[in-house]
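Friendly challenge for the regulars: who can give me the structure tokens for this chain first? No prize, just bragging rights.
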Amino acid sequence: MNTGLPEDHIRVLDPFSAEGIREAVARILEGHNYRLFFEDVTKRRLIATYRNLAEYRMEDEADDEKWKEAIRNELAKDGNKHPDKNLKYWLLGLTKKTAQNLGIEKSDYPALFSRMIKEIESQSSQIGIRDTALLIWAGAATLTVRGSQKAKIGKMLEKGVVRAALTIIGLDEAKGDFFLNLRPDEEVDRETDAEVRTNRGTVRIDIGMIGEGNPEVIDDKISRVGRNGVVLFDKLSPNSNAWANGERQQVKMIQMRNSNPVEELRAHLSRLGVEVTDEIPHKEVADRVLAMDSGLFDFKR
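First reply, four minutes later:
Bragging rights claimed.
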């Protein structure tokens, strides 16, 4: 089976370490699918979460009524000292976001739990009360964990990709050739991921680890960078209106997956008068990123 991963894909123990982010960035700039790199660590987090929830399923194993009371007692505890702050929401079969949208208060927990149990008892006699509850809990936890991992991964990678790409094509961040995380100003009213200095002004760059399902996010980024700006993204459908929108606004659109994003960025900046290196062979991109100081990819500081 072809997973789309290079044979030497990430082997670091902690994909969120500086070394892990550096290695992921190296492969992304080669054109690989970054989501596959992090799927294993997401599954490990899910398995650990399910294991913890299974312990609540086993409370007072011999007596279902005592089990229900044990869960109610957990829900009634003051605060949330459990390592995962979402536990109480999961025990109600909810995510935190859903609970907030529903306007649920702590005083509502007993009634919500009773309603969940009532539904389980009326529909899942063959599976069993606790096993059904565990499935509901796991479903809510899965939504939470995957959402959290996606946000965490995206923020770290976006910074790493821009810094690495601009550095290996010859720009020096320390000398002010480019800046990361630009605040809003008179010209652009929202934060931009990077800005490159040129003889005629600046070029803004925005990046989104966005797939085909979120083209509207790319349209928003196009409006941020302005003429000659750059939008880097994971992948877009060839039929997406974002391509035409970028061309109309004279914004350089660079898809990273299954392409050579470093060369596209280098060539675009070169045409704008930015002093960059000669073309970098595609096969050398990853090695050049991996040769960078890992401290440049430490975004936990």
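Residues 4 and 225 are 31 Å apart (CA to CA). The first helix runs from residue 18 to 28. Your move, everyone else.
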